[in-house]
Amino acid sequence: MGGEKLSKNKYAVACSIIGSIISILMGYDTGVMSGAMLFIKEDLKTNDTQVEVLAGILNVCALAGALTAGRVSDQIGRRLTISLAASIFLAGSILMGLAPNFATLLAGRCVAGVGVGYALMIAPVYAAEIASAETRGSLTFGILIGYVSNYLLAKLPLVYGWRAMLGFGALPSAILAVAVLAMPESPRWLVVQGRDGEALAVLRRFCDDAESRLAEITKAAGGDVSTAADAHKKGVWREMFLRPTPTVRRIVVAALGVHFFEHLTGIEAVVLYSPRIFHAAGIVTRDEVLTATIGVTVTKTTFILVAILLIDRVGRRPLYLSSLAGIVASLSCLGIGLTVIEHSTLAHHTPPMWVVILAIATVFTFVASFSIGAGPITWAYSSEVYPLRLRAQGASVGVAINRVMNAAVSMTFVSLYKAITIVGPVVAAVFFYLFCPETQGRPLEEIEEVFEQSWLERRRRTSATAAELMMA
């Protein structure tokens, strides 16, 4: 029996990993663009404005994908939505890889952006519905692959280097297009469609108590299967935004809020423009910049792995709030370091060594702090708090907000200390403390109950319980 259970767990993990390949598309693109921009500017003679537009336009175009992905996912299923996202990104990657000029490159990046919008919506939803939370941190591996390919492909002739970097993104898309055929559909989506027999068959491949799990999912979906399917077709957006119940309103505020505040921490500026930050700190050659950038991503990967190990042991809230405390400290020191470096440069002086070391070190501590909490928890939390009937389209709106914030930071970046301050993470900490209750250890079908009480009601209840314990 133990061996059979282990086999089922491995199968669930394998499906989650395959589904998370779609996350690599966004991670790869983010990582590879930071290095490719160095070569694109030199090869295509682009100016700073064009580089900033190229960096941020993917996020703008991802809005189109994100805002339609939820509805498409509800109609055709999670598995086919993954395949569609991969196909769109494949077309964009090929177009970017063959681009003879800036206009074609920009068009390819827009197409890829639509695929990214789909990818960012469907990957965490599929993971939440088919596997455990321990597999939801795969996004960072895509960023690592992107940065490593920067370093390896930088040795190619200039005209081919950046094209190979961007075109290489077609590889995971092609792999996924084949691998997705072996993946099961989300049993929760099958329940909403009234296909309980198929849902039961999938659940039997993952768990021993398939019948009871199916009953729980059906109950959470809204009663009997046909009622759930009819209710789902009647206007999810109306239930979320026009006539939400107090519980649904709290869920929507929490899920969308974490996406809004994720980029106010400044992570996109650090990841996308880390080569420029290192250049300002005195790391000037291409190999040095790309090596340092790989170091940033190794740090990011290491600490998100730590987060995966801790998230179900210590909970979402302690990790998230500790993460923001580290971000505030890192930003304060980084802002000081870059300000001193800029003033020294303007005065034609060599920056003091301690300032250079401070600037470089705080880039790493910032990335480590973000990766252990604010980054992975944003995606895990926002995909798990919605009830089944709202999950796909709720996640779709969250991704749209995430991309708007991402584009705003990417396209308006001038220098790190001007683009971001400690205000963002401080406000994010207050928001998460007040509006995001702990979901640790809760099955998806029970999380809605966590939001039935407001923060004030939960606070009063906790205080009353503590008082009773003291009196006893």
From TrEMBL:
Family in the record: Belongs to the major facilitator superfamily. Sugar transporter (TC 2.A.1.1) family.
Alphabetically sorted, this entry's keywords are:
Membrane, Sugar transport, Symport, Transmembrane, Transmembrane helix, Transport
Q: What is this protein called?
A: Major facilitator superfamily (MFS) profile domain-containing protein
Q: State where it is primarily located.
A: membrane
Subcellular locations according to the entry? Membrane
PANTHER family annotated for this entry?
PROTON MYO-INOSITOL COTRANSPORTER, SUGAR TRANSPORTER
Q: Name one Pfam family in it.
A: Sugar_tr
Q: What sequence ranges are listed for the domain Major facilitator superfamily (MFS) profile?
A: 15-440
As one GO molecular function, the record gives: symporter activity
Q: Where is it found, in Gene Ontology cellular component terms? A: membrane
| Keyword field contains Transport | yes
Q: Which PROSITE patterns match?
A: MFS (PS50850), SUGAR_TRANSPORT_1 (PS00216), SUGAR_TRANSPORT_2 (PS00217)
Q: Which Gene3D superfamilies match?
A: MFS general substrate transporter like domains
Give the membrane topology, semicolon-separated if more than one.
Answer: Multi-pass membrane protein
Q: Does the keyword Transport apply?
A: yes
Q: Which InterPro entries does the annotation name?
A: MFS_dom, MFS_sugar_transport-like, MFS_trans_sf, Myo-inositol_Transporter, Sugar/inositol_transpt, Sugar_transporter_CS
